[in-house]
Amino acid sequence: MSDKKRQPSYGLPFLSTKERAIEALCDRSLHSFLLKLLLLSVMLLAQDWQPAARVFKIRSESSIIRASMSETANVNSAEVSAPNAKIGPLDVTQIQAILPHRYPFLLIDRVLEIERKKKIVAIKNVTANEPFFAGHFPGNPIMPGVLTVEAMAQAGATLLLTEIQDRDNKLVVFTGIEKARFRHPVVPGDQLRIEVEVLAWRSIAGRMGGKVFVDGKLVAEAIISCAVVDRPRKHAGSQNPVTDADPAE
Question: Is 235 among the residues known to form the active site?
Answer without folding.
Answer: no
